[in-house]
Each structure stands twice: as structure tokens, then as C-alpha cells.
Design brief:
single chain; 575 residues; alpha+beta; four-stranded antiparallel beta sheet
Length: 575
Amino acid sequence: MPRALTGGARLRVVSLAAGRAGVRAGMTIAEAKARCAELETRPWDDHAIADAILAATTALLAASPQVTPATGTPGMWWVGATGFDALGGEEQLAHTLLTIAREWHPDARVAIADSCVAARAATWAPVARASGVEATIIPPGGCAHYLTPAPLGLVPMPDELRDALRMLGLTTVGALAALNAGDVEQRWGAEGLVAWRLARGDDPRRPGLVRVEAARSASVELPGAVESAEPILFVLRAQLQRLVQQCVHDGRAAAAVAITLVLDAGRQYPIEEIGSELRGHVHVPETSDDSVPLAAVKSRKPGAANRAQPDTTPIPQLPPPTPHRIPHPRPVPSLLGVPHRTITREVRPARPLARLEPLFDQCRSLLERWDIPAPVIGVTVSIPATAPLAADQGDLLVPSWRDTAMNAEAVFARLRAVLDPDNRGDVVVHPESRDTHRLEESGAWIPADAITLASAPLPVVPTPVVQTPGVPASAPRASVVEAPPVDAPPPPAVLRLLPSPDPVDVELPRGIPAAVWWRNRRIDIVRAHGPERLSGDWWRGDGYARDYWRCTATPDGDVLLYHTEAGWYLQGWYD
């Protein structure tokens, strides 16, 4: 069955069956469906992939202390392969890595080399099983010789550079390595020189030691059972301040804050009156361990590489996790150690924060609308997710300085508290464009995830430069002087779509729209441009075929009409 994982409107990973049908990663869904109508697409789940990569990375630490997931290539890891002579050598390391990686993928592969680029290329070569080691081990100092017959596709480089080399008849890594370094740099610049060094086995990439973050959590036992939020807020603020200070010390920002309340439900409130949450201490894991990376390992010296089967196999769908019962702990002196009912809620700011006030405002808003079913005897505050700390700047001479981001975050926290009582996380959203000809699906509002927004690069806004008459165009940038303002061209019209197209009656005296009856009102059309035929999505089962007309009406401006077999519809207007 041909399958593919989609990221937005394009394919990110395709299976082997889809590849045989001509489907390639990077294609649009429409283009892929046109080549293979049976293609089954599933959305790319960043959270599931991240959880699976973390699980696989943790498992690989049993083989080597240096494990680094390859950036932008899920399913590939660089693993350190030095210092194993007293532990069985490279053969034993390769065997251990294969054993771990094949828990995720049966066709995992391992290669050991001096450089990452050679180790990655070696995972694509047939494995000689005569020696009993199901891995490719390149002898020390043999990376350049091994890469000589390899195709250029195994060396990371921009697509434009690879196409230029192929047009010159250079199809192997050895042909690129044989060129003169000065000629390469003169013709293709720094990017060409980096590719030339990789072709000669000179790869600066190295795996790093995995840094495991300590658990950021604090628990407090209250002196007595409380039913109001004030004592909880007092304790929560102090513990949250300590956790935020720890994050700042480590250069991290809080992307989420979890609050767990320990309820004194056993003495005063029967379980039946409180509800079924955690009844009988049944726990269901919340991590996305059902999505595993396509792990195939490759290692290198003095670093090693792990590589997945090359983005061609769909992620296996495992059954959902089975609930398991938490065993009762042994008696401990602390009251929090006794089995009690707990309830946990989580707040996620629109972007990671390392400031106490906006985080505390969101936690206070959560507690104000939290229906707590029983008295509280303990509070646990934790920061389950962090992101790199942003370098916010302000006026250090003003003690009461509050930047605009913190003020805006406080406003958003109040809005979420009012507009999102169920904590669905869809109040703060951002627009995303879609690659489709169906106008109503050309854009969508996507929930804003703090971790995703933190890792996204900031958009670059070009600064307009107005050339002054008399100043040469080749003058340095500092010598350009702003000219007096001139009349700028009007901005392009924006299409405003109705929630759903409205059926209308259209007068067609000569086959061209002359008037539209919409919502019991007649709109005269003075000019009509069309028809423009748009069709597609036949492979989804809800195909469409429409003849669009852009009509200028008085005094309403431009409206957008289309005609189908079912009749005429007004879909929106331009302003």
C-alpha cells in the first residue's frame, strides 16, 4: 500500500511502494495523487516524532555516551565510536547498536567510519555478512577512498550546486574531490568549498554528549486541608519563582507549567461523589510512545552516526497504550507519600517565557476557573517542557521596566482564561497558507504551539530604500539619502471569503453576469472578467469544477462569483 506523511501541503516521507509509483518527498499532495491515486496520506505529527526520537536517543545511550540526533533527518543519529577497544571493539559496538535500533525498525543499518558523511554513505551499501558483523566498518583513514565511487546524492549540498555539477558531467563524489579547491571556491563560493571538503572525507560534524535535564518540579505539603485558592496561590508563586530561576540559570525558558493538586478525598468525600478521574489509581501514559522513529544506526570515529531506513517506510501504527495499575507505595512519614487522588492541569504560554509574572498570571487564571472537587492538602508545580532562552533587552536603569512582550502575554493570558475555559489551546493561533486551488482551503488557522514557535526562525522584513535623484545606484548603502515621500501604488486587493458560499441568482443577458440577486438585494454588475475554470481534488472523492467570474458591482466593489452544475454562488469580495 503506498503511503506518505504530509507536512502542510507537501509530502515529507514516502514509503517504498509510493516511491515505485513515482511519488517523491517534497511533492504537493495534488501532484502525488495525480501520479498514484491509491496513495494514503497521514499528517506528520511533530510531537509524536519528537517523543519517538527522544525514546530512541535514550535507548542508544546504553551503547555510547555520545548520541546526537541528526538535525532535520528524523531516524538518523550520530553516535560516538571511540574508546571501545577494551569493550569488544567496533564490532561489538555495531552489534549493540543494531540490537537497540531493530526494536524500532527491522531493517536498521549501522556503519562506522572516521567521518559522518562516510558513515552515512556506508549505510546505503550492501553489507558483507561473511565476517558475521551485519555492519559496514570503514578502516581508519579510508573515508576519501570509500567515497570515491559514491553518487553525489550522498554528500550534503544545495540542490543548485548538485545540478550544476551534474550538468558538468560530475556524477560521483570522487569526481568532485578531484577538482582544485581554489577553482571550486571561485566558482561556487563557500558552499562549494564545504561540499568539496565533505567529498574528501573532511566532515566537521561530531556527536556530542547528551545532556539530560534534571526534573524541574517542586512539591509542598500544606499544613491543613484548604478549600480556597489563596493559600494555593501563595505556595505556587514561591515554588514557581524558584523553578523559573533554575531555568534562567540553565539558559532555558518555560514552555509549559503543570500544576498538580493532592486532594484529601479519602476522608471527607467518597470517590463516587468526586467522579471517575483516577478511580482505583488507574493511570494511562500520556506520552506518544506509539510513534517510533525509523531507526537504523550508523556510527563513526571519533563520532558515530545512526541512520534510519531512508524516509521510505511509513511509521508503524501500534495499538494504544494499555492502562496499568499503579502499585501502592510503602508507608512514608510525609502525608504526600500516602496514596491520594490527584488532579493535574497544564498551561502553555503562546511563547516560552522565563519571567515569573506572566507565568503566574496564567496559573492564577487557571486556578480561578478550576472546579476543585475536594479540599487540597498538597501542591506540586513542574515545568515539563522548556525551550532556549531568548535574549530580551530593556532599560536596565528603570527598575519597573516591563517589555511589550510581557504586557502582551498578560493580556493573552486573560483572553485565554475567558475564551478558552476548556483549555483546548486554540485561542492563540497563527495563519498557515495551503498549496491548493480550492479557495476556501487556501489558508487555515493553526494553534500556536510554544515549542514550535520558539524553534521557528524570525521572519526577515526587508527595509525599503528610496533612491534619491542624483545619487548613483552603485553608491554605498550609507550614502543613500531618503527622498521626499511620493505617491505609492495602491496595495493589492484582499479577497474576503464568506464562511460558506451563498447561492445566488444571476442575470445573464448575453451569457455574461449583468446582475446578482443576493440576500433579497439586486446588485448591478458593470464589468465582469471570466470565466476562469478551476477544478481538482477528484482523488479525494469531493472533486470540484467551477467557472469563476470577478465582477465589479456598484457601489459594492469587486465580488467573486462561480458557477457549477448546481447553480451560481457568491464566495466573497475584494477590498
